Amino acid sequence: MAGLFGLVWLSLWRDVKRLEAALGAALGEGERPPWPWWPWFRRLADDIERLARGRSEQAATRARLAQAGALIVERLPDPLIVLGADRSVRQANGAARAAFGEDIAAVLRHPTLRAAIDRAYTERATQSVAFSLPVPVQREVRASVVHLLQELPDGGAAIVVLADRSREQAVERMRADFVANASHELRTPLASLIGFIDTLRGPAADDPAAQARFLGIMAEQAARMNRLIDDLLRLSRIEVDEHLPPTSRVDLRALLLRLAAAFEVRLAERGMRLDLALAETLPEIPGDHDQIVQVGQNLLDNALKYGRDGGIVRLAAQATGAPGRPGVAIIVEDDGPGIPRDHLPRLTERFYRVDKGRSRAAGGTGLGLAIVKHVVNRHRGQLTIESEEGHFARFTVWLPAGEPGSPDGDKK
Predict the structure, then answer these.
(1) What's the count of helices (H) and strands (E) in the chain, helices before strands?
(2) Contact (CB, 8 A) for 294 and 234
(3) How many alpha carbons lie under 13 Å from residue 196 in its C-beta half-sphere?
């Protein structure tokens, strides 16, 4: 019996010594002096408690570091997406959510970016690519995919940094388009002005009646050039910011009421009547107030120029939209001669005119509907044009009524 007890005691002693050595290594204390036999279990309990406390502190430190890392990623000004080892999205910062909303997954599926991500994972090296996103508006994006040598605390294995270069590209296009358009469209009125000036200096130098008539024509041509330059500059400014959805809110009903009042005099001059049909309550919409005013002005101006004398111009607005995608439809309709069907697809092109002579006589620049299209695109809305020759032309602008920067405002 004594021998059996001795064997058990020897086995327990060996196990305690092994446990003592393991605890010393775990606590970073290495070899420790032997313990007297009586406080073994108390010392073991103390060491285990110290070990547990140390592990808890390490876990808390790791959690704080992970939280700090996530906060840094969240506050970075450029859109940044963290991908896991399985290439799933682990985190997208505020800039990425603001820029792409619910379209982040679609952005990552773009063939050019997907190929760069595959190369980064395979080669474990940074990849940089540039690509275009066609919807909801054309955007030029440059992406850098960085494969991390060590995974982040949240399992992130790579980061994708996206830089929106749309504004820079738009500025370059604006310069080229402005020069091309201005040189083309200003050539005719400038030639007319030069010709009239030569005439006034020569044959009409002593002819007051001819001078008065030519000066009137010159004033019209100068006004036309002024309108053209104003519209070109306005269109260029809109295009530069077209990829950025507006963040302020607009009371659409009050805006349309003021706009209708501003057109009363011009309508009366042509004996035309404005049929106003605005819903009593319209939701506020995310939008740029001045640009939406420009849309209404351009559409009403078209209805006034091309509607029939003594006719009716209808301005209506009502809440509409599919479930989960609320919006407001603004309708401008005239009862004029209408627009031939084959012209409808091209109406929003720059300088496209159905009747060039009538358009210029009415003071049109050929840019009004192009401005409307780009403003609607910036607001993530839709423009619909319907017409029946000899009866009417109807322009419908649908604008989303979601929160600024929300998916409702970003999808088309």
Answers:
(1) 14, 12
(2) yes
(3) 19
**Chain centroid offset of residue 178 CA:** 23
Amino acid occupying residue 129: V
- Which residues pair with residue 395 across a beta bridge? 332, 385
Structure tokens at 251: 């009371």
- Spell out the alpha helix ranges (H) of 243-386: 252-262, 264-269, 289-306, 356-361, 368-378
Residue that has been written with the tokens 């989303």 in this structure: 400
Kindly report the CATH number that applies to the domain delimited by 76-164.
3.30.450.20
pTM over 0.85: no
Between the alpha carbon of residue 204 and those of residues 201, 214, 215, 242, the distances in Å are 7, 9, 11, 49
Domain ranges of the chain: 2-71, 76-164, 167-244, 246-412
- What are the structure tokens assigned to 207, written together? 């002819």
CA distances from 124 to 127, 145, 402 (A): 9, 10, 41
- What CA–CA distances, in Å, run from 376 to 135, 262, 399, 403? 13, 22, 7, 16
Where helices occur in 202-251 by DSSP H, the ranges are: 208-240
Could you read off the pLDDT of 212-248 as tens digits, one per residue? Answer: 888 888 888 888 888 888 888 888 788 777 878 888 9
Domain 246-412 is found in CATH 3.30.565.10:
yes
Token pair, residue 75, equals 């506050």
Which H or E run includes 159?
A: strand 156-164
CA distance 107 to 410: 14
The tens digit of pLDDT for each residue in 278-332 reads 998 898 899 999 999 999 999 999 999 888 889 999 999 999 876 667 899 999 9
List, in sequence order, every residue forming a beta bridge with 278; answer none if it has no partner. Answer: 317
Domain 167-244 matching CATH 1.20.1250.20: the answer reads no
